[in-house]
Design a protein that fits this description.
This protein is mostly beta strands. The protein contains one helix and eleven strands, in the order βββαββββββββ. The strands form two sheets. Strands 2, 4, 5, 6, 9, 10 and 11 form a seven-stranded mixed β-sheet that branches. The protein has a four-stranded antiparallel β-sheet with strand order 1-3-8-7. The chain is globular, with a radius of gyration of 13 Å.
């Protein structure tokens, strides 16, 4: 019954890198959009990066260029490469899938129906 499972989180020093993985069921993996969200301590959940089946990508503001979303279709796995991490990147990271093609207009949580359990990323300052 588990549709999305994140992994790859952990503790890293500032300036380091992590690669998060999200293993998806075949049905969910082929959704119109796959995306990463994060929730910082005491903050609301925010969109990080999105990759649509039609090739459209979206990134949250300043994260573009530092974070990269990608996928491995044979493995039904979504990735988030995070480089030059800073303490402000500390958060629980979630992968999600949307069955709505309107998901390409941004990274809007309300359009995503399937969610993973989250993986914790802690960046030491």
């Amino acid at each position: 019954q588990v549709q999305l499972v994140e992994s790859g989180g952990g503790s890293v020093q500032s300036g380091g890198s992590l690669r998060l993985s999200c293993a998806a069921s075949p049905y969910v993996y082929t959704s119109p959009c796959l995306a990463w969200f994060r929730q910082k301590p005491g903050r609301e959940r925010e969109g990080v990066a999105l990759l649509a089946a039609n090739g459209i990508t979206r990134y949250y503001g300043s994260l573009e260029g530092r974070f990269t979303i990608s996928r491995d279709n044979p493995k039904n796995t979504l990735y988030l490469q995070m480089n030059n991490l800073a303490s402000e990147d500390t958060a629980t990271y979630f992968c999600a899938a949307s069955s709505q093609w309107a998901c390409t207009r941004g990274i809007e949580a309300r359009l995503f129906s399937f969610w993973g359990q989250g993986t914790q990323v802690s960046v030491a300052s």
